[in-house]
Amino acid sequence: MIAFGPIPSRRLGKSLGINNIVSHKVCSYNCVYCQIGDTKKKSAVRLSFYEPQKLVQEVAKHINKLDKNHIPDYLTFVANGEPTLDINLGREIKLLKRFGIPIAVITNSSLIYDKAVQDDLMEADWVSVKIDTVDKTVWNKINRPVAEINFEKIIEGLTTFSSGFKGKLHTETMLVAGLNDSSGHLGQNASFIASLKPKIAYLSIPTRPPAVKEVKPVSEEKVTETWQVYHEAGITTELLTGFEGTDTGFTGNAYEDILNITAVHPLREDTIANLLKQNNTGISVIESLLAQELIKSVIYKEKKYYIRNYHF
After folding, report:
1. pTM for the complete prediction?
2. pLDDT higher than 60, residue 264
3. What domains, with CATH codes, occur in the chain?
């Protein structure tokens, strides 16, 4: 369950996902909007989850199963939790460079103040850092961090990392109605993000089932206002507010493909249908996974999604 996809990414094209966190979600945050659901193991301690060579071997096997139309544009660390909790991240990135495919890391930034984490991320070609807010009170409400993480150190760490990173730096802000969408708050965010000089700042809204069902995306008017505030701050800004498409990579084993992808990325019903078609199989695979309670269905904005169903 280490490699999955590639899945269509609004930022990275064909992105082959690498889940470097074992099994259940392990994260330093418990974001109210998280598409994977509540954090089952909250931690800010870096651990070894896989032997680096094992991870690279699994990625190689996955790539070898793909047809030529699904060779990825990026190998992307996007985990069932926070990828920088993996103490082997830097070594894994170095080993993966043998494939000649750019490497991306999508991080929640919570450990960015750690020099070792910064060094690991410096090895990547493309890094996205989460910045939902620069207000500590709002941070606690929206990201719900573990107690030992220091907000001020994160802000300092982002500044330090951005000044030394030679690859493509991006930021991502998830806009949640009633939490981080006031006009004053947007201005503070834009000012800080501008200081980091990212290549692109992405603005997102919840488009998949969130961890807290009461979470709502902001209005279209608020998205437009936010874009304008960022634009006026001199930031190249793009929106991640639409559906990324149904064309996922496939390995010939629909059962494993669905389990691997839904561990970190909810699959919409039409995407599942396309994946089953590519794997030359039918709805019986979904029925079997549901009957075994390995996945579950969730309705969000009148669309059906399938996500992994972990048992504790």
Report:
1. 0.78
2. no
3. 3-240 (3.20.20.70), 254-308 (1.10.10)
